[in-house]
Specification:
Length: 178
């Protein structure tokens, strides 16, 4: 009997996505260990990685990194298929679709900081809609929107500034997508 071996060959893109995904997953797991004063309010540090990937390699690779982060981090944190997983997934999808549109805005006025704030609002907005439809069948959940919206502005601004600082050190041809 002959044994056959299947060899998977990774491309440079696969290796990049894996490295950036690992960084985003590590940030998500580390963030889960940070005690926060309000449940559900997180800085979203992995979004810094997503913004850098978006700028350097485009939306497709950013989408891969973002979705791999959601699935792998939920497995590592023991939350796969729990409500937190679905909230994270819907937030990530909303952020990605928002970024897909935002990258076409005039580069003169929009960049990593504004993209980060847009994505943070999309993330929290989608999570509120899912929470209302599935977890909290009452419109009272929307009374928390100002608090979570303020957190989205704060953390979106912070993450965008960090991403912009990281991108300043890149060669011009690599950072030209943002």
């Amino acid at each position: 009997m002959t044994r056959s071996v299947i060899e998977l060959v990774s491309t440079a893109e696969d290796d990049r996505v894996a490295r950036y995904s690992a960084a985003a997953i590590a940030l998500t797991v580390a963030e889960a260990a940070i005690p926060l004063p309000l449940p559900g309010v997180k800085p979203g540090l992995a979004n810094i990685v997503i913004l850098v990937v978006l700028a350097r390699w485009g939306w497709r690779e950013a989408a891969w990194v973002s979705l791999l982060r959601v699935f792998a981090a939920s497995l590592l944190l023991g939350q796969f298929l729990a409500p937190g997983f679905f909230l994270s997934l819907v937030g990530a999808l909303a952020s990605l679709f928002t970024l897909a549109g935002a990258i076409h805005l005039p580069k003169k006025w929009f960049g990593p900081v504004s993209y980060s704030i847009f994505a943070a609002f999309a993330h929290i907005g989608a999570q509120f809609v899912l929470a209302r439809l599935w977890l909290v069948p009452h419109d009272g959940v929307f009374h928390l929107m100002p608090l979570f919206g303020g957190a989205a502005v704060l953390f979106g601004l912070m993450n965008g500034l960090i991403a912009a600082a990281l991108l300043r050190d890149l060669p011009v041809q690599e950072a030209s997508r943002l």
